[in-house]
Amino acid sequence: MALRDLLYGAYGRRLERSLDQTALPRHVGIIVDGNRRWAKAFGASTAHGHRAGADKLLEVMGWCADEGIEVVTLYLLSTDNLARPAAELAPLIDIVEDAVARVAATQHWRVHPVGALDLLPGATAGRLRELAERTAGVSTGVVNVAIGYGGRREIADAVRSLLREHAAKGTTLEELAEVLDVEHIAAHLYTKGQPDPDLVIRTSGEQRLSGFLLWQTAHSEFYFCEVLWPDFRKVDFLRALRAYAARERRFGT
User: Which of the residues 35, 81, 144, 196 is marked catalytic?
Assistant: First the structure.
């Protein structure tokens, strides 16, 4: 083993011991970014980068389990990503589908797809629903897999669902307008019933949300990491948790 690996291992263990276990996030959102740039740096195919990212995904979920994180939301494929050329999109969807299946196979995470499944290939949407059903009894943790996801679309879907619910009850628009508040909309989001993300991590150095959980991240803490996703290390993850624990959360004030 290289000296650098030994040093990082020792540093990681010391960092983990120093974490305040009472100040860790319940819900961590992760914007997975940098697979293509990582592959390009090695002169490899885009698909190779996505496969490396999928392997990292399983590793990171293990770290989350080790730290007792209850809910993880993975931003894997946006609605904008669905417009990529078919030659890139088809293998990417297969890789993402396989990665989610591998996470489900750990039997630690209940899989909850979030996004517009109707925009995905029928076989992929069916597989995601199957994995959700297969893990429905898992109580140790929940992983929201955001595939074909867009934050604006989620809010629009929530409002549509709310309007349909009240229309079925015979509520008029005027009556609904009198009582409507944020909790009514929150109850129709893809993540309804879950705590909002306490911490959002984005890799690759980009400092933007890219439409990720626009409603739910109103009071989240953010941690932007320069490293590309396939190179994301446990020390990077632990640093994000340490940074979160050290912050005084003000919830918008």
Answer: 81
